[in-house]
């Protein structure tokens, strides 16, 4: 009796799984097993494995990652075409633990479709009004750059790890445009915060499996660091909520000049309420998640880019000399560069590099 019931359930699940498959999917690397999909075919080096499949299957192929089907796009031309000509098909976000627990399905990273467009348009407009690409933003960057260079100069040529220093400077640019705040290097609040950021990026690799197998989060202990990450993000959201100082903010009814993103966001929330608009992503939940997104997307990534740029220039002094000469030719050494001076454009004219071999872009379907 029990055996018959089990056999029936297994057959039913297999049938439903088979019927859910698309009729004409891109090629896949092999047999997708129930539950695990193609994960059983992965080797230790993920990047090499994906590149091997690309060479075998072409620039478009399918991977079954647990219960999720992913279409992998490879190559500069194909990814450009997908993002520029077919972006409407790529607007939605997958339903996974990251979006559920971290951003609560809100904010610029987790939203999709029309609401994502609304968030993007609002943030772009606000950043432009705050000086993105103009002198106001450049001045914020100059302040942190001057502080960074002065601090490095104080090392008197001694070998030093500048990653923390750079990260605080990068964070101050973000907090400046977001909350109108600036922190000193030894401020306990920012030291505590950046510790969270570093820990998050350290744990992401081991926790990503939860996205594909959510049931693992219920296992005893914290083998995949899910509980630790959840705790960190809860504390980060609490810190951002405190920094926004919502109850102390003045709504800018004139719209002539916003102090920061938070003031602009709160003003737009009040405007929507006064107009009776209810179907909007401009609310308190999306304010909190979008600000958290700005920090997570900007702090670690920009810091690593700057630190690696310094590292490469140290190890390749000939490239450093060329960059320095170009700065001398275009800007000079008696003033700071202006945003209107596109130094990289003249460098690109002498470069034959073209991003033909971009890593894969995946879209969950």
UniProtKB/TrEMBL annotation:
The keyword Metal-binding applies. Residues 1-22 form the signal peptide. SUPFAM superfamilies: Cytochrome P450. The keyword Iron applies. GO terms for cellular component: cytoplasm. GO terms for molecular function: heme binding; iron ion binding; oxidoreductase activity, acting on paired donors, with incorporation or reduction of molecular oxygen, reduced flavin or flavoprotein as one donor, and incorporation of one atom of oxygen; steroid hydroxylase activity. GO terms for biological process: organic acid metabolic process; xenobiotic metabolic process. Keywords: Iron, Metal-binding, Signal. Belongs to the cytochrome P450 family. This is Cytochrome P450. It comes from Elysia crispata. The lineage of its organism: Eukaryota, Metazoa, Spiralia, Lophotrochozoa, Mollusca.
């Amino acid at each position: 009796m029990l055996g018959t019931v089990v056999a029936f359930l297994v057959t039913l699940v297999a049938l439903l799984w088979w019927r859910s498959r698309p009729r004409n999917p891109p090629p896949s690397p092999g047999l997708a097993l129930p539950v695990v999909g193609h994960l059983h075919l992965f080797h230790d080096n993920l990047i090499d494995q994906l590149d091997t499949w690309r060479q075998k299957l072409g620039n478009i192929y399918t991977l079954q990652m647990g219960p999720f089907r992913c279409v992998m796009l490879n190559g500069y031309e194909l990814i450009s075409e997908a993002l520029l000509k077919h972006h409407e098909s790529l607007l939605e976000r997958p339903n996974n633990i990251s979006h559920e627990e971290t951003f609560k399905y809100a904010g610029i990273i987790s939203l999709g479709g029309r609401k994502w467009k609304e968030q993007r348009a609002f943030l772009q407009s606000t950043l432009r009004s705050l000086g993105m690409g103009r002198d106001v933003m450049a001045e914020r960057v100059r302040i942190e750059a001057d502080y960074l260079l002065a601090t490095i100069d104080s090392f008197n040529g001694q070998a030093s790890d500048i990653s923390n220093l750079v990260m605080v400077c990068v964070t101050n640019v973000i907090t400046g445009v977001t909350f109108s705040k600036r922190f000193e290097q030894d401020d306990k609040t920012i030291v505590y915060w950046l510790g969270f950021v570093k820990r998050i990026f350290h744990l992401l690799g081991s926790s990503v499996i939860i996205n594909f197998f959510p049931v693992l989060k219920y296992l005893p202990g914290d083998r995949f660091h899910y509980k630790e990450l959840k705790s960190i993000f809860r504390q980060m959201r609490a810190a951002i909520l405190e920094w926004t100082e919502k109850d102390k903010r003045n709504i800018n009814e004139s719209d002539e000049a916003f102090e920061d993103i938070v003031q602009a966001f709160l003003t737009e929330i009040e405007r929507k309420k006064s107009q009776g608009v209810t179907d909007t992503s401009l609310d308190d939940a999306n304010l909190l998640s979008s600000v958290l997104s700005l920090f997570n997307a900007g702090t670690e990534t920009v810091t690593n880019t700057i630190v690696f740029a310094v590292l490469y220039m140290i190890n390749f002094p000939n490239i450093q000399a060329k960059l320095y000469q170009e700065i001398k030719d275009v800007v000079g050494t008696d003033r700071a560069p202006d945003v209107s001076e596109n130094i990289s454009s003249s460098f690109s004219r002498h470069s034959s590099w073209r991003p033909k071999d971009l890593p894969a872009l995946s879209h969950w379907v």
